[in-house]
Amino acid sequence: MKPYTILHTIESGGPGGAETVVLNLATRLNPKLFRSIVLLPPGPWLNPRLKEQGVQVIEVSWKAWWDLRGPWAMIKAVREHKVDLIHSHLPGQNFYSCIAGAATRTKTLVTYHGPVELEWSRNLKGRLRLWFVRRTADGIVVVCDMVRRLLIELGFDRDRIALIYNGIDPAPHVSARTQWLRQELRLGSEEKLVGMIANVRQTKGYDFFVRAAATVCGNMPNVTFLAVGDVNEQLAAPIKVLHQQLSLGDRFRFVGFRSDVADILKELDVFVLASTSEGMPLSILEAMAAGKPVVATKCGGVPEMVDHGQTGWLVPPGDPAALAWAIAELLKDTGRSALLGGRARDKFFKDFTLDGMIERYEKLFLSYLEPR
After folding, report:
1. CATH number of the domain at 4-167+353-369, out of 3.40.50.2000, 3.30.930.10, 1.10.540.10, 3.40.50.720?
2. pTM here?
């Protein structure tokens, strides 16, 4: 019996969390059961990684939500490759996939990764797209219970919504290098490192992270803060101005996008995520897999990942004073930090491994595909 053909599709090539989920699904599904094809716009991050793994990639450019090249290419791909199931990610592509599914009578699953995607649906265009998805999608996947509740409030049928937590591969964190990052940054072994791994975007709360860093640096010596992630220069401009105004200098460093995140995490004393809106951020999972104490904001699906006071510390979004206090407390109390990090690692292996995520998606796909 031939494997089922899955058409994965997303409106962005990343880097980012949703794009990483697509990469993992397209390359890790059981090849005896599933054949993966990915349709997405041209891009320098996700596309080459898929091709390197031998995944067939269909690149299509479209400029606006009403540009029909996207859904038309999807319809063509479904017919050409005899696709059994369409699986899409992010609101624009969820809309397109439902058009293609309806036109070809192909089962369609859509995925929402965070509440900000539903905020984009508040205008007339967004409401129309969401209405169409609600009426036509065979199933909806959410990565945290908070998004599931929002969709139910918006009229989605709760019985069609499946919750599948994101997962990551722990292997890179087991073999990560040690004692090289401080050498690269020319810091002594006594220097404490606090890092945030997130692309510079509006919802990531970098301005609050910078303000918290200034407070901690004003009260504690030998602490360096790192911002690790792709930098959108337009969005980063006011954050860098704030950095200068607070005279942080080399005590707060923007190191840009890095492919050695596991190695960086290995040397952090505290991991931070200061977001104002989230779904289920993979960076927190990476920190948990590395056994690092986490300080994160209580938003989106983060409270489903971090148990306050048990596996990490949660603070209100947009509160740099609370963020600074939590960071300082964990830097001072290394015993407590180690305890939180160890518990976080245990919870990761229980609930958030990549193998577990893939198994849950395979079961979901089969529930829509069998019998053929």
Report:
1. 3.40.50.2000
2. 0.90
